[in-house]
Write a sequence for this structure.
């Protein structure tokens, strides 16, 4: 198990859409943690290129995260209605809205690539692959990790053969990794990380990696003390120089602005820093159609530095992030986690 051989129990969250780079993944692995590449939104050929770049930089383990495709296209009428609402935004930004479409994010080609030329870890988000997919990757030599957001999903993933469960709390930035993006679940707000971690560990014996709102060494210590094998961290790395984070997002992450859940940018529930676009629009449940529809708007916002047009994905503790090289951040988190665990032991009379 890769987790048993890490010098530092810190995993880089796969940050799809630009922030994850081979350089960032290499820096985290080089510091003793586990670096990840994000396959989401990349073609299989582009992913192969990133894997090659990372391998040239890395001597230790590397993981890749893949989006599990959804079941069926969204209601075309709902997407068309949403596009009409956004027409004025596009005109003001000087762009045309994108063409909404349903696809599987090059699923078959990515699986073929990762089975033929495996990495130590292949993780999945937005669902659990069928057992034959998991078995093929394991036979090729890759561990399979599955992101879960509920205890029930954890049981399903364990039964399907997943080696490791990544428990994503509702504090996490970016898209929810839920197997089904059901609006009926929105009212509950989802499971917070510590609650989810305890419940998942009570229902399965699989190792668990904790994700969501972990921005300090004390938080790393908290999830380790609660039984996690490692902490998966994303938002805290967004301001590292190795990350491909846009300038407009770097500035937003450095602020103390509140976060909220939204489907406005992609049609799938995700946590980001609140802005005018998020507050002004309610999208239908239509991923990836809405993702493609709003892509030109978001790109225009990044080019012009307008934070109100950009999906500013970030976890609830984003204001604690700092501008540090990734290796320095890993070392600092590990040092502070040790100090926090020692302090907790003293408080217990240990």
């Amino acid at each position: 198990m890769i987790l048993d051989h890490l010098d530092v129990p810190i995993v880089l969250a796969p940050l799809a859409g630009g922030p994850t780079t081979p350089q960032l993944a290499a820096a985290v692995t080089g510091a003793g943690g586990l670096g990840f590449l994000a396959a989401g939104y990349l073609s299989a050929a582009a992913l192969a290129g990133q894997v090659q770049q990372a391998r040239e930089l890395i001597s230790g383990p590397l993981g890749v995260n893949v989006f599990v495709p959804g079941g069926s296209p969204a209601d075309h009428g709902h997407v068309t209605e949403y596009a009409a609402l956004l027409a004025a935004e596009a005109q003001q930004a000087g762009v045309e809205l994108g063409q909404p479409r349903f696809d599987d994010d090059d699923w078959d080609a990515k699986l073929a690539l990762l089975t033929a030329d495996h990495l130590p870890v292949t993780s999945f988000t937005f669902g659990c692959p069928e057992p034959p997919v998991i078995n093929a990757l394991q036979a090729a030599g890759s561990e399979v990790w599955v992101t879960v957001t509920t205890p029930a999903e954890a049981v399903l993933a364990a039964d399907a053969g997943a080696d490791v469960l990544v428990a994503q709390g509702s504090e996490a930035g970016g898209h929810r990794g839920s197997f089904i993006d059901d609006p009926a679940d929105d009212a509950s707000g989802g499971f917070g990380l510590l609650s989810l971690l305890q419940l998942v560990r009570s229902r399965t014996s699989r190792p668990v990696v904790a994700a969501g709102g972990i921005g300090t060494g004390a938080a790393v210590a908290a999830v380790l003390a609660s039984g996690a094998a490692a902490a998966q961290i994303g938002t805290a790395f967004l301001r590292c120089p190795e990350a491909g984070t846009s300038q407009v997002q770097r500035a937003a992450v450095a602020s103390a602005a509140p976060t909220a859940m939204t489907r406005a940018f992609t049609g799938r529930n995700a946590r980001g820093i609140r802005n005018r676009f998020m507050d002004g629009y309610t999208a239908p449940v239509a991923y990836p159609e809405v993702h493609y529809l709003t892509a030109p708007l978001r790109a225009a916002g990044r080019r012009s530095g307008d934070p109100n047009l950009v999906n500013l994905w970030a976890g609830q503790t984003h204001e604690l992030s700092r501008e540090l090289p990734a290796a320095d951040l890993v070392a600092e988190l590990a040092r502070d986690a040790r100090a926090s665990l020692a302090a907790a032991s003293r408080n217990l009379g240990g």
